[in-house]
């Protein structure tokens, strides 16, 4: 579902979707999200160029933080020596509140399957437990080179050989509500979506993007939408110091289920 907000030369497009292999008979939740986005975006707010605390919504997590992690846990990239966590197996790399796994066994999800493209039965693979790296994602070839077992992540198209590919990334929820996160912020941002973050140094974890949809927080409440604002940071630094993880999770497309993430500092540049 998509809607737009137009004021003079200012145009904002918002949208929400839900995907499932099960018939969807209830669309109220999707409609409510779109209406909430339009309501929060009615007012304009400005920010100064300085580091600010930030709350990433599930869509914000997807647009800013997930691609570097998908690359870092790819067994092929690990074997090539290009993953920044490739030699950190069993070591703490992230905040101890963070848990992440890859799961191709969840019922009715588009990325779930009985087996991967090499016939290996699907499984749930823990990748981060209490902040420590526990596994990487392998197909048969990369698993053999790494002297381990396939994690059922072999993926191929008609014209190529199998290669490791994630199914669905799942981040474990915490115990803090979104309202509690916002109430804790004196001045900061809520990031709903970034544009261009994938053009950073993905392997190194660096990202920089324009805030396509985001809101300013003042004294514990959202006061308006920000424009002409760029944020930048490093995924590994952000996820090393997580203030809180949201108590509710949401699917973003078919590849990610995540709660909100509340981080202490993100570089902000505004006009």
Automatic annotation (TrEMBL):
<dbReference type="GO" id="GO:0008237">
    <property type="term" value="F:metallopeptidase activity"/>
</dbReference>
<feature type="domain" description="Metalloprotease TldD/E C-terminal">
    <location>
        <begin position="51"/>
        <end position="269"/>
    </location>
</feature>
<dbReference type="GO" id="GO:0005829">
    <property type="term" value="C:cytosol"/>
</dbReference>
<dbReference type="Pfam" id="PF19289">
    <property type="entry name" value="PmbA_TldD_3rd"/>
</dbReference>
<dbReference type="GO" id="GO:0006508">
    <property type="term" value="P:proteolysis"/>
</dbReference>
<dbReference type="InterPro" id="IPR036059">
    <property type="entry name" value="TldD/PmbA_sf"/>
</dbReference>
<protein>
    <recommendedName>
        <fullName>Metalloprotease TldD/E C-terminal domain-containing protein</fullName>
    </recommendedName>
</protein>
<dbReference type="InterPro" id="IPR047657">
    <property type="entry name" value="PmbA"/>
</dbReference>
<dbReference type="InterPro" id="IPR045569">
    <property type="entry name" value="Metalloprtase-TldD/E_C"/>
</dbReference>
